[in-house]
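#struct-pred
JK: can someone run the complex with protoporphyrin IX containing FE? inputs below
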Amino acid sequence: MTKTDDARPAVTADGTPIELADIQGDILRAYGNAYDCTTYVWIGLTGGPQAGRDLVARLAEEVTSAAPWGGGKPTHHVNVAVTADGLRALGVRPHVIDSFSHEFRQGMKDRAERLGDVGRNDPEHWTTCFTDGSAHLLVTVNALTPKRLDEALARLRSVITETHGHTIVDEQAAKMLPGSREHFGYADGFAQPAIEGVSEEKTRGGGVPQSSGRWRPLALGEFILGYPDEDTRDDRERRLPSAPDAPLGRNGTYMVWRRLEQDVARFRRTVSAAAERYECGDEAKLRAKIVGRWDDGAPLSHYPDAPPEDTFDGRIPGANDFRFLDDDVLGAKCPIGAHVRRTNPRDALGWDGALSFRHRIIRRGMPYGPELPKRATQDDGQERGLVFACFNASISRQFEAIQVQWVTDGNVFGLGHDSDFLMGGEPGSGRSMVIQGECPFYLAPQDPFVSTRGGAYLFVPGLDALRALGVGHVS
Ligand code: HEM
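RT: done, structure tokens with the ligand placed:
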């Protein structure tokens, strides 16, 4: 992860200044691993529209922007996002709400079937606030220490409930696991898109693969509203993704938030049983084949047979600089259905990445719940999983395309209806995974490893837009 502490002027490719001081923090550049104590506070605006606007105005004073910090690391950061129900609860007029994208207005629950949220993932199993329309605002607090987090939360709770009369409808604490791992035990969170004017050289491999062997970064408008995206910077006549007029449509973005419960014991049992039949019991390699990276993050494309001897550092230049068509068309190194190859196929679909580079997301998720003790293979009854959080300018073109076409279905990769093995499948669905090689290895039909427990589509306003929402000047 990169830090927001340098002072380089940020401009897009055509020289347009990037208004960092108006863009919320943790979108373009992560706060960094030091901020490993996080709580997501979901608010229902039960105090009424005026008290809702007052709360937004109050929160706007505290929000961290993307501007360089100066003066060292703040003890904590506050960021704010709003659902479509939240905009309605704030009294935003219908014609303004109609100018947001269709999928945002519809909301995650009403798009459940398309997202694969059926069966065990069905919204009927979600936390109620995500299905009854009462989740209006999301305040994310990232802190350096548990003490700082507790202090910030105590103040926040009092402002929300006592000062403004609203209700906290859900709170989700999250914490980075040692070694930046998620609960299945893989290092996570370092492959991110490279963005013009924002990303450093070390994010090579994060943008669009070029036939020259080089990469180019993506246009800012793929992630922040109000700037040219990959269509409009070449052809100004084309329309930007659905976004309201300024101030709302300037320097904001859309956020996807999903609570994904992980059945770690079942995942461990399944993989270790399968490994008994795989390359003389090489469980570490089988785990790597499922994700496309070894546990420490080293990509199979660079290290196909064994991980590097020294612990892999995902921050080194070129850590994400790999492709699939050069010498791995058939998936002998990184299987065609591996998680990273599905979620960012790079050049694997041909046409120099033209079929994949419009479907990129900035991921900022965090694990929640206690770690299952190492080597335990029976569930301990505690809930644990991943808060999956990502940012994109178009939820339907970016997040939903990955989730629907690449994670939940395998057709585009020539894998029939096999879904991403890491997520697990519905019992009886018959979905499996083929690990290509001299002699293909078949992972038997998936058990359910990951289950959706709630989620929402949100809008993350720029700071001016947040202040305008606070005083009701957004028509
Ligand atoms: C519990 C569920 C999930 C787990 C445990 C998980 C785990 C991982 C891991 C270990 C990596 C490799 C590390 C890295 O590249 O940073 C990764 C990469 C990634 N995941 Fe997931 N993931 C989950 C769900 C999802 C979902 C639902 C999506 C999107 C719909 C997604 C999208 C991505 C993307 C885009 C990458 C980066 C690929 C690249 O650029 O190379 N993940 N994930």
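RT: quick notes.
The pocket of protoporphyrin IX containing FE is lined by residues 182, 184, 186, 188-191, 260, 262, 291, 293, 297, 339-340, 343-344, 361, 363, 386, 388, 402-403, 407, 422, 450 (CB under 6 Å).
The chain has a mean pLDDT of 93.
JK: thanks, will look after standup
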